[in-house]
Amino acid sequence: MTGTFLYVLFPLLIVFSHTSPAAGDDPAFLQSVKLNPMKPRTEKLSHFRFYWHDKVSGPNSTVVNIIQPPTNNKTSPTGFGMVNMIDDTLTEKPEAGSKLLGRAQGFYGVASQEEVGLLMAMNFVFCTGKYNGSTLTILGRNPVFEKVREMPVIGGSGLFRFARGYVQASTHSFDFKTGDAVVEYNVHVLHY
Q1: What does pTM read for this prediction?
Q2: Using one digit for the tens of pLDDT, what is the confidence trace for 122-145?
Q3: Contact 118/149 with Cβ under 8 angstroms?
């Protein structure tokens, strides 16, 4: 037993002791950041309401289908497995010609075999006013036929660094022929 330790474990201990930093040494990629105690930052809660235009049809489509679902009886009722990439407009009012506030860029896929339940991963990229260039990131489940759907805000950039919160989505209009949809988004986000 002692011989096994000397021949197998002892060389491993020597190798690992030379590859890890000594106690108290920070690796070169790690740096502690100290907050300035003289400049406290207050977190605020903001509420935004805008309209998400998912345009599937026509020459100015904002949706590209990247994966079609397999064609079998198990997946065909819900479209399970379908994935679409989006670059949807976000507007101030439900009309397509109203003021452009930003874009929703990302993808959604049908992730449920039981209902039309989407997995949505998208960034709201704002292009106007104080929040121009800032983003909010949404990642969550969207059961599209429920009246109000809630998804988490998992982060952001620009003025939304360290953001967290939730969105509530409710369908304003949906065209069953074309697949085009307008969805009202109410966004509640904590940020600095």
Answers
A1: 0.80
A2: 999 999 999 999 999 999 999 999
A3: no
Alpha-carbon distance of 99 to 97, in angstroms, equals 7
User: pLDDT (tens digit, 9 = 90+) per residue, 5-32?
Assistant: 555 555 555 555 555 555 556 567 777 7
* Exposure class string for 39-55: b at 16+ Cβ within 10 A, else e: eeeeeeeeebebbbbbb
- Distance in angstroms (rounded) separating the CA atoms of residues 110 and 75: 10
End-to-end CA distance of the chain: give it in Å, rounded.
60
Chain position carrying tokens 């997946």: 75
- Cα–Cα distance between 154 and 146 in angstroms, integer? 22
The Cβ of residue 66 has, within 10 Å, a number of other Cβ atoms equal to 11
Residue whose pair of structure tokens reads 């990131």 in the numeric block = 137
Rounded CA separation 4/178 (Å):
71
What is the C-alpha to C-alpha distance for residues 92 and 54, in angstroms, rounded to an integer? Answer: 15
